[in-house]
Amino acid sequence: MMRLKKDDKVMVIGGKDKGKSGKVKRVLYAKDRVVVEKLNLVKRHTKPGMDQAQGGIIEKEASIHRSNVMLYCDKCEKAVRSGVRKMGDNSNARYCKQCEELFDK
Length: 105
Ligand SMILES: [Zn+2]
What we know:
Elements: E1 9-12, E2 21-28, E3 33-36, E4 41-46, E5 56-61, E6 64-65, E7 69-73, E8 78-79, E9 82-86, E10 92-96
Antiparallel strand pairs: 1-2, 1-7, 2-3, 3-6, 4-5, 7-8, 9-10
Zinc ion binds near residues 75, 98, 99 and 101.
C-alpha cells in the first residue's frame, strides 16, 4: 500500500489533472484521499457574508483519491512506484523502486 505524507511531491495519474504534479497539502487517511496544492481545483460559489461583501466564486482544491496519484521522484523526473524499507534505526523509509532514492530522509 502506498503511504503518502504531507509535503510529498506527487503526480496525478488519473482524472482531469492527469500528468500534473504538486505538493501534498493534506492527507485524509480515513477517506484514502489527498489534497494537493493547486490541483483538482473546483469552483465554489460563496454567498455575501461577513468576510465577503459581494459573494462570488472562489477556487478551492478538492481531494483526490490516493489511487489517482503517485509519488514523484525528482531524480527520475517522473511518477514512480515506491517501496518501503526498514532503516537501521528501525524506522520505515519509502524509496523509489526505479533509482533506489529515498523519499524519507
Ligand atoms: Zn527515482
